[in-house]
Design brief:
Layout: E1 8-11, E2 29-32, E3 48-51, E4 59-61, E5 66-68, E6 73-76, E7 91-92, H1 95-111, E8 122-128, H2 132-148, E9 151-157, H3 165-177, E10 183-186, H4 196-202, H5 214-220, H6 246-257, E11 270-274, H7 281-290, E12 294-298, H8 305-309, E13 314-317, E14 335-338, E15 342-345, E16 353-356, H9 361-364, E17 370-371, H10 379-397
Parallel strand pairs: 7-17, 8-9, 8-10, 11-12, 11-13, 13-14, 14-17
Antiparallel strand pairs: 1-6, 2-3, 4-5, 15-16
Helix pairs in contact: 1-10, 6-7, 6-10
Length: about 400
C-alpha cells in the first residue's frame, strides 16, 4: 500500500484528486482512489479514508514537532490515522513548591556548616514610607531569612515624606562597610521626591542582592563572545560571580525544575518575552539568551504581536495587563511563564477582587503544556532567589566562593 498512500491538501469541502467529490460538511469522510492516470494500476482496489477539519485548529502532528497548515486549507489523514485531538490540559508549574525546595536546600546548607564558621548570611532591608504592601513584603523577607538560618536587619522610615536622600545614602554607606551585612535591599517604590537610581547606585555591587546596580546589569548583558572572555556556567546560578535580578532568575529556575526536576531544554528554542522593563523583561531575555534560546522581545509598539507569540516555544509574560495573552496567541505545547500580578474586580469574592496574570490562564491551559498559575507561580520564587543571592554573597565574602 506504500506507494498508493498519499497526503492531500484540499480547499474546504473539495478534493483535488480524480475522485473530485464534494464533502457534505467539514469533518465528514471522503473516499479517495488512486488516479486513473497512474501508469501502473494497483493489483487490488485501495480505499483511502480521510477526514477534513477547519484550518483554525488544524495542525500536522509528527512524533516530536508540528507545523501550521496554510490558511483556507485542510489536511486529509489516510486511514487508519484519525483526526488528532488538539485538546490538552497544561500542567501547573508549582512555584510555591519549587521555592520551598530552594529555601529548604539553603537551610540544610547553613545547618551543616562547620562549628568554627560562626558567620551567617546577613540581609539588610531599607523600608521608606508606610505602604501596606511594602510592609507585607518586607515581613515576608524577614521571616524567610529566619526560617533558613539567615540574619536580617531592617531600617524603617515610616514618614517617607520627611526622609532626605542623604539620610538614605548615609545608611547604605554604613551597610556597605558592615561585614555582618552581605546583602542590601531597598524596598521599592520609594517616595517621589527620592531619586531612585541614585539610591540604588550607592549600594555596593557585591551586596546588591536585588541585581539592580548598573555594574551588575552590565555584567548580565555581556555575552562574553569575544576572544579571551571568561565563559560562565549559566546552568548553575550559584556559580555566577555577580548578582542577577531575583524575579528573572526565578523564571529560569522554574524552567529548569519543572517535570519532576528534569526541566525543559532551553537551548535552540524560540522564546518570546512580552515586556521590556529593566526589572523583568530585559533581564529575563538576557538569561534566556545566555542559555542559547532565540529571543524576541515584544512590547506596546510591536506590530502583529499575536503572530509573533504564536511562534514561541517559551513565552514569558511580564507586561502588567490582566489576561492580555489569549489562548489563540499560543503555540500548542508551549511553556508559559506568567510574571504578571494584576487585580480585577470579583464581586462574588470576600475581598471583592482577585489576582490574575498577564495570560488568560483558564483558556491557555487548554493549549500549552506547562504554565505558571497566578498567584502561586513566579511570585514565591522572587524571595527564594533573594535568599540565594544573599547566600552567594556571603560565600564570596567569606572566601568560600570565587568571584
Amino acid at each position: 500500500m506504500g506507494s498508493n498512500v498519499r497526503s492531500f491538501f484540499v480547499n474546504h469541502g473539495q478534493t483535488t484528486t480524480a475522485a473530485d467529490q464534494k464533502l457534505s460538511k467539514v469533518g465528514s469522510p471522503c473516499h479517495l482512489m488512486p488516479s486513473n492516470n497512474s501508469k501502473k494500476r494497483p493489483s487490488s482496489f485501495i480505499l483511502l479514508i480521510a477526514y477534513c477539519f477547519p484550518v483554525s485548529d488544524a495542525f500536522v502532528w509528527h512524533s516530536s514537532t508540528h507545523r501550521r497548515i496554510a490558511k483556507n486549507q485542510v489536511l486529509l489523514y489516510p486511514h487508519p490515522i484519525t483526526r488528532p485531538s488538539l485538546e490538552m490540559t497544561a500542567k501547573d508549574i508549582d512555584g510555591k513548591s519549587v521555592a520551598e525546595s530552594i529555601r529548604s536546600e539553603l537551610a540544610s546548607k547553613l545547618a551543616s556548616l562547620p562549628a568554627d564558621v560562626t558567620s551567617r548570611p546577613g540581609l539588610a532591608v531599607m523600608l521608606v514610607g508606610s505602604r501596606k504592601d511594602s510592609q507585607t513584603y518586607v515581613r515576608m523577607k524577614q521571616k524567610a531569612c529566619a526560617d533558613c538560618g539567615m540574619v536580617s536587619f531592617l531600617e524603617e522610615y515610616p514618614k517617607g515624606e520627611d526622609v532626605t536622600e542623604e539620610m538614605l545614602l548615609a545608611k547604605i554607606r554604613d551597610w556597605n562597610e558592615d561585614e555582618a551585612v552581605h546583602g542590601i535591599l531597598v524596598q521599592l517604590p520609594l517616595p517621589k521626591h527620592i531619586h531612585e537610581e541614585r539610591i540604588l547606585s550607592e549600594v555596593d555591587p557585591k551586596k546588591d542582592v536585588d541585581g539592580l546596580h548598573p555594574a551588575n546589569t552590565a555584567k548580565l548583558f555581556s555575552t562574553a563572545t569575544h576572544a579571551g572572555a571568561v565563559k560562565l556556567n549559566w546552568k548553575d546560578f550559584t556559580s555566577i560571580p555577580f548578582h542577577i535580578p531575583c524575579t528573572p532568575q526565578g523564571c529560569i529556575e522554574l524552567l529548569d525544575r519543572i517535570n519532576d526536576g528534569q526541566g525543559i531544554e532551553i537551548e535552540g528554542k524560540n522564546a518570546v518575552v512580552i515586556g521590556r522593563s529593566n526589572l523583568v523583561g530585559m533581564p529575563v531575555a538576557m538569561l534566556l539568551l545566555h542559555r542559547n534560546a532565540t529571543i524576541t522581545i515584544v512590547h506596546s509598539r510591536t506590530k502583529n504581536i499575536e503572530s509573533i507569540i504564536q511562534q514561541a516555544d517559551i513565552v514569558v509574560a511580564a507586561v502588567g495587563r490582566a489576561n492580555m495573552v489569549q489562548a489563540s496567541w499560543l503555540k500548542p505545547g508551549c511553556v508559559v511563564i506568567d510574571v504578571g500580578i494584576n487585580s480585577v474586580d470579583a464581586p462574588d469574592t470576600k475581598r471583592g477582587y482577585k489576582l490574575v496574570g498577564d495570560v488568560n490562564y483558564a483558556e491557555a491551559k487548554e493549549v500549552c503544556e506547562w504554565i505558571t498559575p497566578v498567584p502561586g507561580g513566579v511570585g514565591p520564587m522572587t524571595i527564594a532567589m533573594l535568599l540565594r543571592n544573599t547566600w552567594n554573597s556571603w560565600r564570596r565574602a567569606t572566601g568560600q566562593m570565587e568571584g
